[in-house]
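name: query_chain
kind: protein
chains: 1
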Amino acid sequence: MPRNPKTQILSLEYNFTTHQMIHISIFTAISGIIAWRFFFGYYYQINYIKGLVPLIILILLVILTLSKKGLVKNNLHLYKGIFIFNILLFKKKINLKNKICFSILKFRKSQKYAFFSAASPDASHSFNSFDLYLLNKKHTEKNLLISLKKEKNSKLAKDFVASFKDFNYELYSPDFS
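structure:
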């Protein structure tokens, strides 16, 4: 939990897709096997110092796999955050200069699967993406705040940002005049 009582957090969804998590989990398993061999290997004496490197990599990969993205706000600033079990690990300040409103745009995206080229070269996964953008007055400048896969989470993010400094939710309608 944040130390400042006026700081509010909103942990939304995992940083990675299922396919990406599988890839990270493969490297996690390899690091685990290497750490196990160093700590409990039967060829040489136990070498804990050499085993610490793969053990640290193992711990970092598990944290990376389980991390979630979200938003953090206090009275003055809005941040993007990285969370593990609703504990804030990292936050990045959002530039709000000339931004007075926000909008959520829905996109249809697809991600190609890696390592499936022989059986099905065009194997991919399609999904909806709900991207929350910060906008200027005329909606001609937009900055991506966060991209979410679930509409329910986009509504939570919408309410969270709307309560920050009276940001208004508006339908995206650029005025190029």
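note: The longest helix spans residues 18-40.
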